Amino acid sequence: MTARNSIQLIDLCKSYGTVTVLKNINLEFRPGEVHAILGANGAGKSTLLGCLSGAVHPSSGSIVIDGREFKGFAPREALDAGISIIYQHFQLANSLSVSDNVFLGDERRTKWGFLDKAGQARITSEVLARIGLELDPDEIVEDLSVGEQQGIEIARSVRREPRLLILDEPTAALGKHEVEALLALVRRLAHELGVAVIFVTHLLGEVMAVADRISVLREGQVLWTRARSEVGIGELVAAISPDAVSLETRRSREVSQKGLARFHGFRSSYCGPFDLTINEGEILGIYGMLGSGRTDLLETIAGARRPWSGRLTLRDRELHFESTIQAMTAGVALVASDRLAQALFPSLNAVENLMMPHYSRMSRLMRKPRKELGMFRQMAADLQLRPSGPTTAGSAFSGGNAQKLVLGRWLCGLRDIALLLLDEPTQGVDVGSRAQIYQLLRRFAKEVTGRAAMFATSDPEEAIALADRIVVLVNGQVAHVVDPSIGEAELLSLAQTAEIAHGATHQLGSKEDIAL
Ligand SMILES: Nc1ncnc2c1ncn2[C@@H]1O[C@H](COP(=O)(O)OP(=O)(O)OP(=O)(O)O)[C@@H](O)[C@H]1O
């Protein structure tokens, strides 16, 4: 790749009507450098990336590339200018091969106009070698691991020889080893291939491992930009969330021994059997990687998936439900992991989004707008929702704030929810709000009798910080049940050993079930 100049943002601003989202942003992205952009939920990170990728048109200011000044561009122009973005949700055609995906939308043709499959495969091999990935260009994408699929996204970008590669929360779907491999690849892209990389994440450990420089955004402005070597994690937390509470403070592990939810031989289509009791006041963590079955399990318990077999009792009542509405009525609710796709209503306002699951029980005449507004204000304050205006449209909330709003539905006490299920409760949530959400979940489970929560996570730190007891889920099976006091390293090691053991028994064709 040829040597390139920095990309500069000069006085970049973005407003939506009267709402200013980015204000006079001046930043420089240098070739050969990983630049982490951090900030609380709603600070303006996605908007800034949108300006660079062409998804958002700046209100004023400019982007300067090799002396050329752009007032904003369309996505195609951004690509042509050498800017490539990799989103959290992969944009791959799963039934096509690796090389088909690397050339997706930009296919090579032979001089007779046919698809140049051989040429594409050859270039794909060269690109994969350049970034140090051992993959067969003819392999079908759906047969690859999540980490390998992300590698293809990166290969697709690298083939275009980008000046600037943007990674937006790239590790959300990855396991520990895949994260390490990705961070090594990112460093290699910058330090060896000379690409300018922007890395956006809420995970500060990753920032310390990969960034050369760090910029913190606060309320749409650059608070500071500093070399990574000059900053510690404590300073980052203080800069991102000045009011953050430590994840460990106010922790109470008191759980009664009174059973609340009982699973007897419970099976979903992929997971089980489970024989397990969740006690009143308990927060049960399911620690499992993508593909472990954690989402299938939670969605089945919440009535979103069928079939299930075995027995489930809640407050000593046997449950039989076939929909999420029936589950809700029985006292079981789920906060899904993909709130933008599965939970938020983009065109409804914030109050309506908060109240949505509760409307089904009241006629229009029974609605009490003042009370709803009061509840919304309370939730917005408890969860530090930004923006906190009741009329804000669902589509205007940043990822982390959308999560808070969806969570607020079940914490506001309008339904008698006994078992709250959460899939990746703090994915995409900033460090300050994470502590806040943990506190609210503890309050939910422990301050009112007859309640408990069950959450799934792929983050060992989250499992340890939030759970009273942790179930290690591997390929749909309970591999271990442990106390969080074992610590992060031991939890990881248990999960890895179980995965290796599962691989071995799987190869031998054994399907032995492990029950609690
Ligand atoms: N279309 C829109 N109309 C009005 N406001 C918007 C719109 N899109 C975004 N915003 C506001 O812009 C602000 C910045 O949002 P942005 O998504 O850039 O934040 P973020 O830092 O990426 O947050 P997160 O970490 O939660 O993803 C938020 O307060 C959001 O409400």
Automatic annotation (TrEMBL):
Q: Where is the ABC transporter domain?
A: 7-244, 255-500
> Which positions make up the signal peptide?
none
Gene3D superfamilies assigned to the protein according to its UniProt record, in alphabetical order: P-loop containing nucleotide triphosphate hydrolases (3.40.50.300)
Pfam families linked to this entry? ABC_tran
A GO molecular function held by the record: ATP binding
Q: Which UniProt keywords apply?
A: ATP-binding, Nucleotide-binding, Repeat, Sugar transport, Transport
Keyword Nucleotide-binding included in the entry's annotation: yes
Q: Which SUPFAM superfamilies match?
A: P-loop containing nucleoside triphosphate hydrolases
- InterPro entries referenced in this protein's UniProt entry, alphabetically: AAA+_ATPase (IPR003593), ABC_carbohydrate_import_ATPase (IPR050107), ABC_transporter-like_ATP-bd (IPR003439), ABC_transporter-like_CS (IPR017871), P-loop_NTPase (IPR027417)
State the SMART domains in the record: AAA
UniProt record similarity statement: Belongs to the ABC transporter superfamily.
Query: Could you tell me what this protein is called?
Result: Sugar ABC transporter ATP-binding protein
Q: Which organism is it from?
A: Aquamicrobium soli
The organism's taxonomic lineage, starting at the top: Bacteria, Pseudomonadati, Pseudomonadota, Alphaproteobacteria, Hyphomicrobiales
